[in-house]
Each structure stands twice: as structure tokens, then as C-alpha cells.
Amino acid sequence: MSVAALPAPASTAAADRRPSLGRLTVVELRKMTDTRAGLWLLLSTVLVTAAAVALVVIVADAPDLSLKDMVGLAVQPASLLLPVMRPASGSSVPKLRT
How far apart are CA 88 and CA 37, in angstroms? Predict the structure, then answer.
């Protein structure tokens, strides 16, 4: 009795590669915006950040408009709302219906 060995398929090397950072980012953004709550939370974060920066640009004096202050101001709304996003998007997993 003899045993024949089959060669390994050539496509296994492509299947073992990890996805790129860009692909993972696109997938995570799609998962976050699949629900209405996730979409509105993401949009509200962007709008609040843009409104805060625009308000400071309009109201503040020229010496107060440093890059450090603007970046710090842009990070504040995002740092408050972004931690809410992931649990909110993770808890909206579709339920299986039978």
C-alpha cells in the first residue's frame, strides 16, 4: 500500500496575510455607522468639534490662535464622545431570529 502526498495549495500564503490598517479602518467605520445611533453619534462628534473650532476662530484674538490651542480644543469634544462610540456600536449586534 502506498500513500501519495498532495502538494500544498499556492493560495495559502495569501490567506495567511493580515488585513491592512486602511481595510480595518474602513470595516470598523462601517460597523460603527450601521445603526442610526452610531451614525448620529459619529456625526455629532464631528459637528461639535467643527463648531467649537469655528467659534474660537471667530471669537478669539489673533495671539490666542496657536496651533497647540486649536488642536487641544479639537480634541476635547472627541475625547468626551468617542469613548461612548465603541460600546454603543458593539451593543447593537443584530439578533438572530428563528
Answer: 8
Residue 26 resides in a domain: yes
Please give the Cα distance from 57 to 55 (Å, whole number). 5
Q: How many independent structural domains does the chain possess?
A: 1
Instruction: Give tens-digit pLDDT for 25-78.
Output: 888 888 777 777 777 878 888 898 889 888 888 888 877 788 888 888 888 877
Return the C-alpha cell found at 75.
Answer: 480634541
Domain range for 36 = 22-89
Radius of gyration over alpha carbons of the chain, in Å? 23
d(CA 80, CA 29) in angstroms, rounded, equals 18
Q: Is residue 34 assigned to a domain?
A: yes
pLDDT on residue 96: 47
User: What's the CA gap between 48 and 55, in Å, rounded?
Assistant: 10
Asked if the structure places residue 1 within a domain, the reply is no
